[in-house]
């Protein structure tokens, strides 16, 4: 598979006002056919993650058309919640919380998700990255496994959220 030539741009906490609507639009397109009540709270999550001073986001563009994004932020030191799933937990502690990845349906299965993930993780200072994948989406979980992530447990972070597979990888990505 040849990844299309896309311009992947980096953004930070300071750029949130500029990119917020772009993120919301891509998310709406990506989930248009499967939007759940929980997904409708996505703007709150954008603001929550974007409010973190370490927020990092990448957006892929075809010309000026945004086609996908990935974002996250460093975990608060000493509060790596994923550790409860491992005994013993790794000695490495600095964790990047990979919060969200979305690609417009037209651009799926073209390597865009892989490229966004790798660009987001490239050069990170953290030792590990953690993310959550809805256990009802085994193909998405398999995609992350193909990138080196491994499932270490399951978690339901909100009473109305899906149950998620907790996935962890050492950085840099393999």
UniProtKB/TrEMBL annotation:
InterPro entries the record matches: Acyl_CoA_acyltransferase, GNAT_dom
Gene3D superfamilies documented for this protein: 3.40.630.30
Domain of life, per lineage: Bacteria
Alphabetically ordered keywords of this record: Ribonucleoprotein, Ribosomal protein
GO annotation, cellular component aspect: ribosome
Domain N-acetyltransferase positions: 6-170
Alphabetized GO MF terms: acyltransferase activity, transferring groups other than amino-acyl groups
Full protein name: Ribosomal protein S18 acetylase RimI
Organism lineage string: Bacteria, Bacillati, Actinomycetota, Actinomycetes, Kitasatosporales
């Amino acid at each position: 598979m040849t990844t299309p030539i896309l311009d992947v741009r980096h953004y930070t906490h300071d750029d949130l006002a500029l990119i917020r609507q772009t993120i919301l639009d891509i998310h709406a397109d990506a989930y248009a056919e499967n939007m759940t009540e929980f997904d409708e709270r996505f703007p709150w999550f954008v603001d929550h993650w974007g409010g973190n001073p370490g927020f990092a986001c990448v957006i892929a563009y075809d010309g000026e058309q945004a086609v996908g994004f990935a974002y996250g932020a460093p975990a608060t030191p000493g509060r790596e919640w994923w550790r409860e799933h491992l005994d013993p937990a790794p000695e490495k502690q600095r964790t990047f919380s990979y919060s969200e990845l979305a690609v417009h349906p037209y651009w799926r299965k073209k390597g865009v998700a892989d490229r966004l993930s790798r660009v987001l993780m490239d050069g990170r200072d953290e030792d590990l990255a953690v993310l959550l994948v809805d256990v009802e989406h085994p193909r998405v979980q398999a995609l992350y496994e193909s990138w080196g992530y491994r499932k270490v447990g399951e978690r339901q972070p909100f009473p109305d959220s899906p149950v998620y597979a907790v996935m962890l990888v050492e950085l840099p990505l393999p």
